[in-house]
Design a protein that fits this description.
The structure is a homotetramer of 198-residue chains. With 198 residues, chain A is α+β, with helices and mostly antiparallel strands. The first copy, chain A, is built from five helices and eight strands. The longest helix of chain A has 13 residues. The N terminus of chain A is likely disordered. Chains A, B, C, D: It comes from Agromyces seonyuensis.
Amino acid sequence: MSVRTPDHPEWTPEEPQGPGSRPVPNANPAWLSDLELAEIRGRLPILYVEAVPVRVDGVGVVTDVGVLLRANQVGEITRTLVSGRVMYGETVRDALFRHLEKDLGPMAFPLLPASPVPVTVAEYFPMPGLSAYTDARQHAVSLVFVVPVTGTCEPRQDALEVTWMTPEEAVSPSVQADMEGGRGALLRTALAAVGRLP
Amino acid sequence: MSVRTPDHPEWTPEEPQGPGSRPVPNANPAWLSDLELAEIRGRLPILYVEAVPVRVDGVGVVTDVGVLLRANQVGEITRTLVSGRVMYGETVRDALFRHLEKDLGPMAFPLLPASPVPVTVAEYFPMPGLSAYTDARQHAVSLVFVVPVTGTCEPRQDALEVTWMTPEEAVSPSVQADMEGGRGALLRTALAAVGRLP
Amino acid sequence: MSVRTPDHPEWTPEEPQGPGSRPVPNANPAWLSDLELAEIRGRLPILYVEAVPVRVDGVGVVTDVGVLLRANQVGEITRTLVSGRVMYGETVRDALFRHLEKDLGPMAFPLLPASPVPVTVAEYFPMPGLSAYTDARQHAVSLVFVVPVTGTCEPRQDALEVTWMTPEEAVSPSVQADMEGGRGALLRTALAAVGRLP
Amino acid sequence: MSVRTPDHPEWTPEEPQGPGSRPVPNANPAWLSDLELAEIRGRLPILYVEAVPVRVDGVGVVTDVGVLLRANQVGEITRTLVSGRVMYGETVRDALFRHLEKDLGPMAFPLLPASPVPVTVAEYFPMPGLSAYTDARQHAVSLVFVVPVTGTCEPRQDALEVTWMTPEEAVSPSVQADMEGGRGALLRTALAAVGRLP
């Protein structure tokens, strides 16, 4: 089974022209072809951002978390988080915004945190044992943020659905079992960071 | 000169009935008279919350900070932050929301952070030298948060005005000189926490 | 059953003269008698510090956590964390050091974190439902730190024993069930903050 | 003038065999030649770690910070922080330890933090204006940690000297003017994170 960090083809020509897209350097010759990226993935750690979308109440308490339903490489349905690469010339915030929009749609209205410090740093290795997180394709280092969203989510691209669930539901064995590469632990770590670990 | 932590008479009968006030336990016999509070202030550290109100751009970058203009005990005009006590039976979040509303008005629409962890902890002592912060009246320990506000601020009570300024203006010598009790350093520390220290 | 935040009689004459004790203001008239403290506990939130003692490997990864075994008010054996009040005139760091020494002995050699920001803030209420943490005696707000210790722990006072366990053991149902007032969730939250939630 | 993120030739054969070196995957075919690295630097953000070495007192308060004196590309003497790339297959902690040893020598005995969360994330761009930090060579994203060191520092490689200074000295205009690429602001941000911004 191929466990992978979702990494949508963000270098396709369509993406930067999408409606409401942030001013990332489009048509950038620095961007990588699939082949080049595959080559580099075996040579360098790749920088990612991940987001746990949440709903909050009037005083900021997290009431629900959004988990993506997605088909993985071998056609299995799995649960995952908003995730993607930081591109050359792009700020971490712009990458975070771009991937939130890609996975939640243009009407999600995410409120990115004022602080640049992630709630945790997740290190994915192709070889198990080095950390709690694995990614068969690459060595990825991911800055993980909890992001309140205030609008309506309608997943685009390969995410089938966004499921909103309480923290209690999110840590249930059945949901945790559907999360690949250690993301069940990552989701619980993010809940702990916002004081909502059941 | 009396340097003091702003601590508005939150136990006055008017306050809990104010429009839009959060459901704090009103008419609570546990609340303290001025005399009792003065007595306790010499015996125990008092828990405070402080907030640095900010404006953020579309990806969460802080563009402006809100500083309060207020007359202190001896009639001098000083600059300060949103601040106040946590009361018996009140959560830190509810206290933060209540003081934001008290100092910025009911239309400020603050977005309290999802995380309960403050950007810093400021310890105020009546005696100098123990920490960077002083308060002639008491030993206070303050949980400090950076809070984006999205609405219109119109100060109530003894705050005369909310001044919005860029991070560069906020760290200017003239603004810093108007901040009492070490709050100039506190404001810079909060800016650093959001990656915006000039 | 009385669930309480451990709050050892830190105002007893013996304590400040203990070997290696930090220079806390001893014989301070500001300190409280038991009766006065009981009275104030129903009027104000009381500030606490809590510590999760840990062992770390050569690059800082937490390998073990120290959990205290203690008899509670009704003679039951329970598991808990290092914990205690911050006293008038005492810094948070000094309080943390004092309680670590009180609970782990003078040879524990704790390495207090350079940052004043706690890993989480735990709010204990006498009434359930307001937060994840309860304390029958009082409204307490606790700044929680993870503290590596490098020496030998020999509990003093009413702690019977320090048990070192792996993160996996610490989150096991049997250990979690022995922790009162929500401290099982608190311990897991602290493990998450250091990237070690199993 | 070439402003650059110090990036010592960590792929030289000598380095991994150095005394006391951590078990990084040596002789790794995944490592990059100078030419390959130069090529990739224009295509992907490169992941770095940076460390602000500090001395702390008995309760963890930072008393001094260590700043490196180093000759830059054009022979000017500049001040900088401990810094370097995270390599393929290497954890962030191992990279941090390796660069601390490289810049401070094998007897520095750094105490890496238990938390994987950096005090800030610094984004370096070749083009000014995108962030507070610039690096003429590349787009680098750096996880910044404050690391207490307990031993003796004797710089190796191209660092000429480690200078210990108080927080007050570190923020003085003359020291700040010697720091390239925005690292003066980075050092102040790190001081703020440990509650020691003057």
